[in-house]
Specification:
With 194 residues, the chain is an alpha/beta fold. It is built from 5 helices and 9 strands; from the N terminus they run ααβββααββββββα. It comes from Gaetbulibacter aestuarii.
C-alpha cells in the first residue's frame, strides 16, 4: 500500500512539473508572438477559428492584406523567424510587398493560405507507399464578418519523389509540392486591381 501511495505521489509530481514546463513554453511563445505581431493582432487570432469560417461570395475592394498560413484547416500566427523563411517570396515580391501589413488592424482583409493534403495521388512504390500532391487553398477573408468571400486553390509545385524509403508496414502517404508563390501573388494582384 505504501509503495502504491509513493508511486501515486511520484506520478502527480511528474504531471505538475510537466505542466509547469508546458505553461512556461506556452508563455514564452506567446511573448514572442506579441513582440513580433503586437498585442491587438495576437488577441485577434487567439480565438480565431479558421475551420469554422463560412463561405459567402461577394466583391470587396481592398488594398492592405494580412497574410496567414495554416495546415489542416488551422491558422495561427508564426514566430518571426518562421515567418521570414516561409513568407519570403511574398515579402520580397515587388508587386505585393506594398500591400502586406503585419498588424491585423491595418489590413482590409486577411488572406489565409491553407495547405490541403488532398491532391492527386501518385505512384505505387515498391514498399506499397504512395505520394500525394499538396494543394494550397487561398482564402480571402472579410475580417469584419470573419467570412471567406473568395477562394482559389493552387497545386503545389514539384515532382513526386522517385522513391519513398520507409518500412512496408507504415501505411501513410508521402506529401510533396511546395507553395506556388508566383501564382498566388498573381492571383492576389488581380484581385487587388478589381
Amino acid at each position: 500500500m505504501r509503495r502504491f501511495v509513493g508511486l501515486l505521489i511520484g506520478l502527480i509530481l511528474v504531471i505538475i512539473v510537466g505542466s509547469i514546463f508546458e505553461c512556461s513554453d506556452k508563455n514564452k511563445t506567446e511573448k514572442e508572438l506579441v513582440k513580433f505581431w503586437g498585442e491587438e493582432t495576437f488577441e485577434y487570432f487567439k480565438n480565431f477559428n479558421c475551420k469554422g469560417l463560412s463561405y459567402q461570395p461577394k466583391e470587396i475592394e481592398f488594398n492592405k492584406i494580412f497574410l496567414i498560413r495554416g495546415r489542416f484547416g488551422n491558422c495561427e500566427l508564426w514566430k518571426e523567424k518562421s515567418w521570414e523563411i516561409n513568407f519570403k517570396d511574398f515579402n520580397n515580391s515587388n508587386l505585393l510587398s506594398e500591400h502586406l501589413v503585419n498588424k491585423v488592424q491595418s489590413a482590409d482583409i486577411i488572406v489565409w493560405i491553407n495547405v490541403e493534403q488532398n491532391g492527386e495521388k501518385y505512384g505505387n512504390y515498391s514498399n506499397g507507399a504512395y505520394a500525394i500532391r499538396n494543394n494550397f487553398a487561398v482564402n480571402l477573408i472579410d475580417k469584419q464578418t470573419r467570412t471567406i468571400f473568395k477562394k482559389e486553390t493552387f497545386e503545389g509545385i514539384g515532382e513526386p519523389p522517385n522513391e519513398i524509403l520507409r518500412k512496408q508496414s507504415e501505411d501513410r502517404p508521402e506529401y510533396f509540392g511546395s507553395i506556388p508563390s508566383d501564382k498566388i501573388i498573381d492571383f492576389l494582384m488581380t484581385e487587388l486591381k478589381k
